[in-house]
Each structure stands twice: as structure tokens, then as C-alpha cells.
Write a structure and sequence with these properties.
heterodimer; A: 107 residues; mainly beta; seven-stranded mixed beta sheet; four-stranded antiparallel beta sheet; 11 strands; B: mainly beta
Chain lengths: 107, 121
């Protein structure tokens, strides 16, 4: 199975900050990398697919980049509604695997 | 609008069984592969099973293989997860999720709201 490792596990930031979350795969997954956002008590929501493709309706302050084994999710200017847990997910091979999550908290 | 609504969760004793359902609407159900993903309390996401749009091909992770069965009824737009020999470590919120197309369960694009399964004596 492909292992996905996110860093940091938690992050404290302020509204308006620019933040970056990284995700590393244990082997090359090309661009088969998705990012999901989960708010407390809610289902996850797909934000970005294929490493950098923003889903319809997702604000443009979110962006993704990377290929191979190293990926990142950047939020250019944090908004109050962005405080949540973010998961990377590889779709290169079955079984699908997720990173352990990055909890983004308000400073 | 795509909607996925899980049901069937609850409290069950170790060794017991449950059948989860996921009612789909807002899209042509048979055109999409589906998955089950679970999340133990306070933990991350764990993908456990996938099924193609036709239902012919399925996959179960090692952690549930031999105990869980995934199936679907395309005439009723419903996905199922039959869980037998339940263990305490199966306690989690179980989400159904839609794949990108009929054959690709790996790319999840929509999630249900989840149903809680608690395994305890």
C-alpha cells in the first residue's frame, strides 16, 4: 500500500495568513493526488483533484501543486470558514490511502 | 444535486452484524463506482471498500476482508455494506462516497454525511 504523510499534523494561523500543507507519498503517484476538507462533525468535501484542479465552487484562494511524491495545498489568505482538517488522498492505486490529516486552527 | 444518505448504523455487540445502506440521488447511480470510507473517533480517514458501477468488480482492504461484503442494487440506487464478525476496532463513522466514473472508485468526488457504528458489549 502507498503511504501518505502530511505535515504539519496541526497548524495554528490567523485570518489573512498564507498557509501551506505538504503531503508526501511513499512512491511516485504521478498527479493522482486529491485534497479533502473536513469540518468538525461533517463529511469531507473534495477541494482539489489531480494535484491542482480546483473543484467547482471552491474559492480560488485554494491551490494545489506537485507531482511524483511531493505535493502541497496552499491557502493564500485564510478565511474563518477555512479552519478545518485537511486530508491528502492518493488515487494512483488501490487501496486508496489518505494522509493522517492536518488540523488548521485559529491562532 | 448529488445526494448520498447512509443509514443502518448503531450499537452492536462484538461478533455481531450490521448492514449499512447508502441511498443515492441526483445522478445516474449505475454510471458511477462507489466506495465505503470509515473514520474512527478522533482519527483519520480509512478507505475500506470499492465497487464498480455494474457491481461486477469489488475490492475490500485486508482489515475487513472475509468479514465485510460490499454490494449494490442499481434498480434501487442503493449501496450496501454487510458487516459480520464486528470488532471493537470497527467502531467508526462510515461514509459512502462516489467515484469519478463507472470503473474508478479511487477518485472520490462526493461524500455522504456518514452513519455511526459502535461495537461494544
Amino acid at each position: 500500500d502507498i503511504q501518505m504523510t502530511q505535515s504539519p499534523s496541526s497548524l495554528s494561523a490567523s485570518v489573512g495568513d498564507r498557509v501551506t500543507i505538504t503531503c508526501r507519498a511513499s512512491q511516485s503517484i504521478k498527479s493522482y493526488l486529491n485534497w479533502h476538507q473536513q469540518k468538525p462533525g461533517k463529511a469531507p468535501k473534495l477541494l482539489i483533484s489531480a494535484a491542482s484542479s480546483l473543484q467547482s465552487g471552491v474559492p480560488s484562494r485554494f491551490s494545489g501543486s506537485g507531482s511524483g511524491t511531493d505535493f502541497s495545498l496552499t491557502i493564500s489568505s485564510l478565511q474563518p470558514e477555512d479552519f478545518a482538517t485537511y486530508y491528502c488522498q492518493q488515487s494512483y492505486s488501490t487501496p486508496v490511502t489518505f494522509g493522517q490529516g492536518t488540523k488548521l486552527e485559529i491562532k | 444535486e448529488v445526494q448520498l444518505l447512509e443509514s443502518g448504523g448503531g450499537l452492536v455487540q462484538p461478533g455481531g452484524s450490521l448492514r449499512l445502506s447508502c441511498a443515492a440521488s441526483g445522478f445516474t447511480f449505475s454510471d458511477f463506482a462507489m466506495s465505503w470510507v470509515r473514520q474512527a473517533p478522533g482519527k483519520g480517514l480509512e478507505w475500506i471498500s470499492g465497487i464498480t458501477g455494474s457491481g461486477v468488480n469489488t475490492y475490500l482492504t485486508d482489515s475487513v476482508k472475509g468479514r465485510f461484503t460490499i454490494s449494490r442494487d442499481n434498480s434501487k440506487n442503493t449501496l450496501f455494506l454487510l458487516m459480520n464478525s464486528l470488532r471493537a476496532e470497527d467502531t467508526a463513522v462510515y461514509y459512502c462516497a462516489r467515484g469519478e466514473n463507472a470503473y474508478n472508485w479511487n477518485d472520490v468526488d462526493y461524500w455522504g454525511q456518514g452513519t455511526l457504528v459502535a461495537v461494544s458489549s
